[in-house]
Write a structure and sequence with these properties.
Order of helices and strands of chain C: HHHHHHH
Low-confidence stretches of chain C: none
CATH superfamily of chain B: Cytochrome c oxidase-like, subunit I domain
Distance between the termini of chain C: 54 Å
Oligomer: heterotrimer
CATH topology of chain C: Four Helix Bundle (Hemerythrin (Met), subunit A)
Radius of gyration of chain B: 23 Å
CATH topology of chain B: Cytochrome C Oxidase, Chain A
Chains: A alpha+beta (246), B mainly alpha (558), C mainly alpha (193)
CATH superfamily of chain C: Cytochrome c oxidase, subunit III, four-helix bundle
CATH architecture of chain B: Up-down Bundle
Number of domains of chain B: 1
Structural class of chain C: mainly alpha
Shape of chain C: elongated
Helix content of chain C: over 70%
Mean pLDDT of chain C: 94
Largest sheet of chain C: none
Number of strands of chain B: 0
Number of domains of chain C: 1
Radius of gyration of chain C: 19 Å
Chain lengths: 246, 558, 193
Amino acid sequence: MLERYVTAASTYAHWIDYQFLLIAVLVGFWLILAEAVMFWLIFKFRAKDGRPTQYITGEEPHQTRWITIPHLVVILCDIVIIVPAILVWYNIKQVLPPADETVRVIAQQWAWSFQQAGPDGVMDTADDIRTVGELHVKVNTTYHFELMSRDVVHSFAVPAFRLKQDALPGRTITGWFRPNRVGTYDIQCTQMCGIGHALMAGRIIVETPQAHAAWLLRNSSPGVAGQQTPPAAAMDAAMAMAEVRQ
Amino acid sequence: MSTDVQHAEPGIFRKYFFSTDHKMIAMQYLFTGMAMALIGGFFAYVFRMQLGFPNQYVPGYGIVTPGKYNALVTMHGSIMIFWVAMPVLIAAFGNFLIPLMVGCDDMAFPRINRFSYQIFLLSAVVLLSSFLVTGGPFGGAWTAYPPLSASAAFNLTPIGATLWLLAVVLEFVAFLLGGINFTVTTMNSRAPGMKMYDIPLVVWMIVLASIIFMASVGPLVAGAVMLLFDQTMSTGFYDPTRGGDPLLWQHLFWFFGHPEVYVVLLPAMGIVADVIAVFARKKIFGYKTVLYTTWAVGFLSFVVWAHHQFVAGIDPRMANIFSVTTLLISVPITEMVFLYIATLYGGSIHLDTPLLWALAFIAEFMIGGVTGIFLGSSGTDIYLHDTYFVIAHFHYTFVPIAIIAVYAGLTFWYPKMFGRMLNETLGKIHFWGTVIPFNVIFIPLFITGTAGDQRRVYSYAQFAEQSRPALQHLRTTSTIALLVMLSFQFVFLFNFVWSLRKGKSAGANPWRSNTLEWTVPSPPPHGNFAELPTVYRGPYEYGLPGRADDFFPQNVPD
Amino acid sequence: MSATAKPIANTRSATGIPTARLITWWVIASEIVIFGGLLASYVMHRIGHPEWAESASHTLTWAGAFNTFVLLTSSLCAVLAHKAADAHDGPRAAKLLRLTSLGGLIFLCVKAYEWTIDIREGFVLSSGGFWSFYYTLAGLHGLHVLAGMIIMLIVAADAAKNQELQRVECIGLYWHFVDIVWIFLFPLLYIAR
């Protein structure tokens, strides 16, 4: 159901989408039923001359069962919802499948920067690739991301992956994703972080291993920063904005 | 008999500005709350104009820059919760109704009552003053997460951030004092014969809300003191570079923040219950069960807070616990709603304006309630957190609470407050002109949120997936619906003011209601009761078989 | 403004508890949550920062201990004041309340002296995690001591004229609460390792 509105480009996107659908069906049923009953009662018991109201305490057993039984069914529905919800959560947030690659994601007012291993395949060496605003990854590859913030609380979100994790200053938070669809997808900041919050856009480019290898070669040279891309201009825009201020 | 009370007519100053009369204090809270609603509503108009017609000049305001946008949404949220919902639902209705409904002459501590309004007024002034300072008002969202809120280097609003915080703390103090007064008065000052289960639900709910408020706000007061020191005294309570922790604020904030939504929900549900009983001419279905579920909700509300923090960097194992408790709390609330719907069965339903509002509350709140499940389920919250889905969810709960239920209460008790009837036709026009557009504002936002629109951004220009024309159409539709809804509020304002002079004379009990406030003149005199009442039964004896009238006031002997 | 007579609402008691005492308990309850929140935050941080023990060792334990003794003694005076009020001996109750207030004053003076020493040694509010909590906790408590003293003197003024004697017990209750908060603060701030 979510796929109607937003692409699914990671392996766990579908788990979240199914959970969303499950909830939609169950609560949708209850919502429609409750609304229908309410409107039916309004219609059936609208004031009619000569028809007195009934004196109902709602405390007799034959009356309370009209509440108790739906009540129990609601609890059942809640259980049906919560079990897969926890499973989805557990598999995304508590489990870290073994990483094929690692990326470092650094949030700051107001841009995203990234660090990945260069052709030597090892992080924190001279040939690492550092980019601003744009992250290149391989399709069908499991990534760990190490998320940090330089200043305030930000939040790293990729709607197409159904990925979201707040970035806190003073700590590194690790998560994972496995893209399964080639394409270019938005990165959003989803925690209010100041006047440049809406400018903290990024792009994540999921490419075939061949395309990715070619990109790696084009961009790695010791100590040279990665390519500047339009979202990085957000940094400049944010600076200008800060001057204009209010 | 209140023979000791001063009978000399007080001067204007003493009567309107320094009164200790609970009814006057109620009016002060009501009008202050309504004035703040105009401001909060105006802000919504401005930022929705920016979202619906990006980067266009907004009539009556100007161009919405990113900094201004952030301040607008921050102030809209803060004002609506702390300076509209709480003063109107709790302080205005609580002050006006409680002494009347429990059958006494005023609150237990009238001077503390007046003092609490004065602190509240001060808090509003402090908040509004932040619009005039260098750097402008605070724009870090009503949730004010540090380090953004703690450091002017990050938030760029040095004075505004501190003024906002001071205003919030003062508001908390005002409501602590006010709530304690309501609680003590309800516990102790009841008319002879009024037992615990003879208290009308609206009074119960306001008192329970006050208790929940008092039990939950303390840690945030502590947290606010710490934030204040971080802002002004170079401490580092929330600064990780100084050994502090930003998450501490989040926990303190949400430990209060979640019960707070029930603090405003309960009075709304109380109003709705009383209105349904009167206009369906029907005893509440399971009055005691309503109370038990309310106590359950109140208790559970203290153990769900971290559902606001699922992806915040808390230990992921904690998320599972809070997901379970969050879904658990949906159970008593659902039960309460079922009880209200069941009350309609066997009734004689008169679709007058107050009841239209009360029924709309239930219909709309149910949408808010079920959409909360998507967010309480930790797995789906990963995607939906901080999207417009959240905004649509909480407006489907907050608008019923702060607008729909308030109108139910105002249209119901206006005759008692002012001695005049509101115009029914205008009332119905206002009703439909509010409720229909309300849905047209927020259903599109459920869709844009599901499609990935994140919160608190003034423009989606930088985001390719959010720049699809279909999404912009939805945002524009939402804005236009807001314009329609806001216009219809003038119908209410006109009705309110016009009826003060020109409305039909109300009499003591135009709605043929059972509760004690309807036994005194409209409006009630100073001291309320010429003769203090004795109570013989509960408040909902409607449709009692074997009686000529379909109602049986609480103060009439058997 | 002229003395308004009390409303009937103030004199009723459906619960059997006098209204003044009832509101005092509610005030204390809300204060417990405030201090509780601050204390809990401190304790959690303290557990996560074992190095704070070093900072804590610089607190002047003798001053804290003396102040504990002062507050406990003053609470005893408050109890005696309540007894006097129960016996309708307003003037005696007033005297004992003023003694209690004096205890509060001594407490604040000792604290002022203690903090002067701390500040001279370079330990201020912004000196790091421990000291931030120390001054905030003790400072908030000190403000409550001061407020209590002021209210107590007002109650004493009325009590001396045998008026509003029920308030003697209430301010005494509040004072005991302030005392108990200190009983928690003292070990957590001065003694804990």
